[in-house]
Amino acid sequence: MFKALSNVNRLLIFHRLCTCCDAGTHCKGRGSQVNCVSDLGEDLGIAASTLSHHMKELRNAGLIKMERNGQNIECWVEPKVLNEITKFFNDLAKTK
Fold first, then answer.
1. Contact predicate 2/14, CB 8 Å
2. Which of 6, 12, 71, 94 stands 20 to 30 A from 35 (CA)?
């Protein structure tokens, strides 16, 4: 997971997904912070093919889930993933 997040663009994409709505939910509509792949990379200044590569890496690392809805591909972060990452850092903080 951390290898996938070591890329700054993937980290930004993951952060957007974590902060746009409640974990495990699909956000719908521009006013509700859309989680369609095309919207996620809108202001990152990266090509669509590069964005697709980053999304694939995040999905393969188990950080995000993706689902096709018509012409859109919606994505979200499962609460379990956030809990695992939080637990890792909490456990790390306890050892110091």
1. no
2. 6
The helix (run of H) or strand (run of E) holding residue 72 is strand 72-76
Q: Bridge partners of 67?
A: 74
- The 10s digit of each residue's pLDDT in 54-68 is 999 999 999 998 888
| Tally of structural domains, the chain | 1
Per-residue pLDDT of 2-52, as tens digits, reads 999 999 999 999 988 887 766 556 555 443 444 567 677 777 888 888 999
Residue 89 belongs to a domain with what CATH number?
1.10.10.10
Residues whose CB falls within 8 Å of the CB of residue 38, separated by 6 or more in sequence, listed in order: 48, 72
